Amino acid sequence: MTSKKSENSTKQKKDAILNDLRGFGGELYEQMEKGKFPWVEMPSRSTENIYYSPDVRQYILGEKSVKRTARNIRHIKPFTQMVWAGFFASELVKNRKTSTLRDVYYSAQAYEMTFKDQPESNNILTDLETATGFAREDFNVFPEERSALFGDLTIEYTVPGYEGKQLNMTSHPDGVMIGPSVVSSEFAKAGCDKVIAIEKGGLFTRFIEERVHEKFNALLVLTAGQAPRATRHFLNRLNKELELPVYIFTDGDPWGMHIAMVIISGSANAAHLRDLTTPDAKWGGVYATDIIDYKLPTDPLTDVDIKRLHELEKDPRYTGDLWKREIKTFLKIKKKAEQEAFSRYGLTYIVDEYLPAKLEEMAAD
Amino acid sequence: MTFQEISAADFFYRNRDIAGFTNPSRAIFVSVREIVENSLDSADQMNVPPEVYIRLSEENGITTTTDSGNGVYRLMVMDNGSGIAARHIPAAFGQVLFGSNYKLKQARGTFGLGGKMAILYGQITTHKPVLIRSSTGGSKVYEFKLMIDIQRNRPLILDRKTRRNKENWRGTIVEFSLEGDYYRAMSKILEYLKQTALVTPYADIKFVDPKGRLYMFNRATTKMPPPPTETLAHPYGVDVETLQRLIRVTNCRNLLHFMREHFHRVGQGTSLSFLDFAGFIRTPDPKRLNPEAVTQLVETANKSKKFRKFFGKVNEEEIKPLLKKTKTPNMIEFLKSVYPNVERTIILRLLASAGFVRSKNPKKLKPSEIVRLVRMMKQFTDFLPPDASCLSPLGEDLLKTGILKELKPEFIAVCQRKPSTYAGHPFIVETAIAYGGDIPKKDDIVVYRFANKIPLLYDEASDVSVRVIRSINWRRYKVAPGMPLAIMVHLCSTKVPYKTVGKEFIADRPEVKIEILNGIREVARRLQTFLAKREHVAKEKKRLTVFAKYLPKIARFATDLAGKTETPNIELLLKSVRKYDEQEV
Question: What is the ipTM score, two decimals?
Fold first, then answer.
């Protein structure tokens, strides 16, 4: 059992963010003071400027940059929106309030800053992320929550009204939702020694019922499909701050495979951000080879599935032997299987047989 | 079977539809219009700014309903025009087609019968006399009570009075009763008066309607267009009937003189060329020329510098043997054979100067010759085009004044085309285009049509102007549907090509059509410039609004972000994006 107060940076990070935003505003202020039209320069997010970096093990932005200036009639509106977003973010962080993307869209109207639609306001927030290098979650802007965790981890809240309060993540049998208060918490104590991320809610509940957290001393994280950015960042922290290995279990199809990959190597959309990836995390299955080895009940791959597999073949993130082997196998057997497929051998088979075998295999890796 | 001759009054009594008296509402509209037009014409002729007072009241002050369900009205129109000499009053108001004038000039009335038709119509529907009071500004005012004897087309004088003209009044008052439907005609009458005010901005028009409501159309200027001068008929515009009338009244003894005397822009040269072309000229047989005549011809040729230039020195002794030998039938052909390089017109002039040219006495022309003469007039191509001095266009300034006064537009362009002719009738087209102000926003452009300063209100779709406007691709001129646009087309002519007796719409004459088209294009081009500028300014304004909206916000948010208290001054930045002066935007 390890017990250590992590050196989480929640407080530090908050200061860094506020500093950065102040600098951003200060720069614009100075430009205007000098009688110049304010402008910002930031990396271009256009597709031809997104590269996969084997060193960083994620997508990064290239050298190209764009200059956005208030002198340009086409730029001035998005420019103003971005400055407002910065202002709004600093208010959120200062006042320790959280908000959602939807909220941002409506809050803008209070400042007579109209956004045409939700995508436009989302895009402006991405601009702010690019310009400052911080994720919107750092600005306390969160998406709707759907992922959860369960296991022997004690966190200490930093949100207003709960400061210093601690909670063990086994306190609720349904798991604890990974919301703003969990994400911004400090890690107080961790009894677990690994993290198991699970794609589907059904399996997450089964694992809790079968006491996987105790049997394998694991922290269970439900990604609920493609993991939200907050969850990906949370996994990154578990891996970095608590040095817990992360194992990912998904459906046995190209989509499940990619859920694992995004946790490991991130997405092109987030090329401007860091700390959202967990490069050392491992995908545990369901592999195409598992389908053969365990003789799982299957569905045939659809045309869309096959097309997706061919895309993944060309994807620079899929360079490892494991990935290449599994893609090839999928294409060979032309079959896929869900995690629940193990139930054909009884409800507990997956916990009793499959999981220990897999964990052993990965730990040995 | 019996054949019966009917009088002109009778003819119109039986065919009143063709003069526009089709139904009670139309009849009252046409009556007001005809009398008002006579008044305006009368003042125009005196070159005084017209003052016209119109009163339409219900008979005896109470609503009278006839069997047909219409009201009986009393119409009174007073003007400050020339007035009519007492001896002419009965015929002027009581005899249809009185006053045959062989000279032409532009006037509102065309057939000289509109006013009389209105009076006739009043008499038919109410059987009441017309009351005329008039003075030419002399010491007396004459008052006549008249009816028209329809079958004999003669005025019946019921009563006449003479009064002293204490106030030195000059003008005419016409007052008569008629049946009609004012309430259905009301909008047309008001529209007519409004458009009349537009095209006659120097006139004061007051109208009191049966409800006692006073409509005033005040003049915006006292400047009047120059009055038209009378002109002779142009050969191209003459028909057999007109020619016969001219022959009846002429004192000329030969056609050469007759052509010069009675036709517009026909002089000695044109007269000779035309009659020669038409075959109405005779010259002597060269073989039968007596010696004195030869001497006279040679002397005429040698005396004039002009002839010497063409013929050189003519030697009598050289000519004589040629005259004997020649086979040519007449002197024109003879001279042509001797001087092949001299133009025929010069030869004709020489012969005329020497007194060798004979032409018929017009009074002795046979009917077939009259017909041939008219036909030849149309075929001869060397007549000079009619000049426009007989026309009285409004002019660009007055047209502008009228439109500004009645429509108060934001933009206006006017254009007066150069005089042109169709079938021997001179005409001038004036066009204008106006944008904004009181002009309603409609999908179609509002069209105001005028002919000789008369607004044309009916049958718009058949009118040449409307057809021309429809044929134009307005998008080329940046015109979009729903714009508040009005187009004015004014056609001035000694003979407006109406399609019907009721002055409602203008026929498709190619010469007229092309002038209207070019006139509208001209003003449309200027409208385009205006609209383009406006569009540009609007764009610029919008651009500025964008900067003015966002820059202060950037300043405010940046100040807050930076943790400063005072917002930076962005006035200079805003000023730098302004391309125009404040007033222009």
Answer: 0.78
